[in-house]
Amino acid sequence: MIIKTLPYFNDNFCYLVFDQTSDDTALIDCGDAETAIDALKALKRNLSHLLITHHHHDHSGGLTELLNAFPSAQLITIRGENRLPKAARQADDTGVIAFGSSFIKIHLVPAHTRFCTCFEVDGCLFVGDALFSGGCGRLFEGDENDLIKAMDKFSSFPEETRVFFGHEYTLANLAFAKTIEPNNTDLLNYERTIQQKRSDNEYSTPTSIGQEKKINPFLRIDQKEVIQVVDPLGKRDRAERIGELRRKKDRF
Hints:
- The protein contains nine helices and twelve strands.
- It has helices at residues 33-43, 57-60, 63-69, 144-155, 170-180, 185-199, 209-215, 224-230, 238-251, and strands at residues 2-8, 12-18, 25-28, 49-51, 74-78, 89-91, 96-99, 102-108, 117-121, 124-128, 162-165, 207-208.
């Protein structure tokens, strides 16, 4: 499997995924059709699968143009999501889609939006705005109970799982994370690594589940230093704690 990261707009990412044993080619998210079409033409690949993590325009605005350009492509969305063009297939949570010699597994993680969806293939997880390196997406349609469930689900993946996210927000997220855990040496070292990557014009995507469990406060809600910041009196449950953490990030 080959993954090509395509940047577009100011800080968005979409991803082309190629199966090496077949002609299957998937695109995860598309806010800008021209970016994807140009890449597919340059690579001489046809588009077989269109996967959308959530309905926000910067992740789905190019769908109609892409479907016109590649009419045989299957648009796959989560069942119940009706704010996107009519899908060739609506999948269920934990559904599986054949993809070349492998499979794409579907995971519903509502919080950022009601139908926020992640796609897993060959140890890689494409998460849109559900999870970022050092952070997570705002709660537009979900609440703190949804958020803690989503973060616990991400934490349950193997640590070596590679995570491909939807925006280049990493340094801003790490700046906030340092206000929560200023003594986290893993966090401080990671920030230096990402600063060097960005100065070299490299992307911070992908990260890994193992890395995020060391530095992302939203996956560290049970750590003593995090609890001390969001629940100093020890009166909140886990969902209330992560809700307070999200509010702090929103105000940051």
